[in-house]
Amino acid sequence: MSVKGFIGLVNAVVGDRMLTISAWEHPDDPRQLMKGGLHAEAMKGFFGTELGGGGYTAVFVPDRINAMWVRCPGCQKMNDYAARQGACSCGAALPQPMAWW
Length: 101
Fold this sequence. Notes:
Elements: E1 6-14, E2 17-24, H1 37-47, E3 69-71, E4 78-80
Antiparallel strand pairs: 1-2, 3-4
């Protein structure tokens, strides 16, 4: 949690497959995990003989970020925050959109 640029992660198991998705502030931030600690130990197991039958790693970056939708606290309608310039058609101010990174 204290690693530079780390935002969060999700771990999932689907059948006999395991998946970890992590979010970072910059695409190069995960490189620091290879320098030591628990992640480096897990990599030794993976590339050795004791962990998993295969796998891959990848870094994905946003290709397109669609509208940030927010619900109006007055009328409860969903609004495209940028298109509505922070104000709902009912006249209420829209809350700030959640961070999307």
